[in-house]
Amino acid sequence: MNQTFKKLAVSSAVMVMTFAGISVSLTNVVSAAKKPTKITVWHAMNGVYNDALKDEVADFNASQKDYKVEITGQGDYTTLNQKVMAAAKSKTLPTVAQATYTQVPDYAKNGIVKNLDQQVKGKQGWSKKDLKNIYPGFLAQTKYKGHYYAMPFSASVRIMLYNKTLLDQYNLSVPKTWDDIQAMAPTLAKDGIATVGFDKSYDMELNGLMHAVGVEGVDAKGKIHIDDPKAVKAADMLNQLLQQGYAKSAGSDMYGTNNFVNGKTALSFTSSAGIAATKQAAPDGMEWGTAVVPSYQGKTATQFAGNNLVLTSQANKKQAAGAFAFMKYVMSDKETVKWAKATGYLPVTKKGAASKDYKKYLQANPMAQAGSNSLKYGFSDPAFTGFQEYRNQLLAAVDQMITKQTPAKDALKTLKQQTQKIVKEAK
Fold first, then answer.
1. What tens digit of pLDDT does each residue of 257-306 get?
2. What's the predicted TM-score (pTM) here?
3. Cα–Cα distance for residue pair 385/64, rounded to 1 Å
4. Is domain 157-304+381-426 annotated with CATH 3.40.50.720?
5. Which pairs from 398-401 meet CB under 8 Å and 24+ separation?
6. What are the tens digits of pLDDT across the range 161-170?
7. Residue 148, exposed/middle/buried by CB under 10 A (0-12, 13-18, 19+)?
């Protein structure tokens, strides 16, 4: 073999080896490219809610190949919040977490969450038409200081339950106004029955009455109106119902379910997502139903509740894209209806609520109708840094009015002072 031939042979062998190496390398690259980006989600869904969430995730994962969502339950909402705070310190946050919208300001202040402006306003984001399709009360929960920080997911609203068996016994109609409630109360009180049943606290009912007359405890500009004369008047009415025996707070019963199903209260205020618990507790033969909360001074307002999805600060660019893709998926008209049917929560989009599928569900499940009818009356309070502490103080103020009969004017004046301090320290 001459030298030229040997050189060619060696050169060819090197080329073969090099091409083989490139082939292996390309195979690895293609394999890596096909591997979906993992999106971890922490949640507080249990029981049937957890099962429904698993179905949503399985559907999303099957709908595309770019991302794979993996969910982990973290107990209840309090435990979830504690674990999120701890994970932020140890830098072990998930990609996405469930959170109430009122937690977002504190999360943003502590660098726990990222805003979603880039995703919402980007090519794969929401059009103006898409945003208008989301109920305003739920859309309001997504923003903090003008930026998008959350996406609605599990939505509920305050509704009224009524004991039809009891009302029929006393020839009473389902009340449509708070004046109706006051008028029917003496009839029931003669036999030791309270007309109204509250949760352990009536803070959400008070908030609804305040919004009905145009008062926000703390508005979007941070101005505090919790001691407004209209708020005081609404609190006085609720306190008088309690003091006269026309209303009953739940106490250790927490949500008042036992009082209602045992005939101790004719009406009860609860979350639209809590109907299942009442169904389970109601005795055989008890006829009961649901209704929109009564109007106050000619207007109806009911508070939205539930939880949203947030993007944590430890998510990289690919994870952020996947997280938003998942958020958009569960908020789609079809999926939000599927979630509502499986859990008792409400659709977050107008088209979803108006769909044939959801209307068919309501016909088969008339108890859910009140929640659907309440969507147009729903509101969400503006979130601000320190909101959780404000709410704790609000609950304490209501407790003083209930247990110590502290005058509403005094309790709400003190609450305003406490809130001023909270807002100031949060700046």
1. 889 999 999 999 999 988 888 888 899 989 999 999 999 999 999 999 88
2. 0.84
3. 37
4. no
5. 398/201, 398/202, 398/203, 398/206, 399/201, 401/235, 401/239
6. 999 999 999 9
7. buried
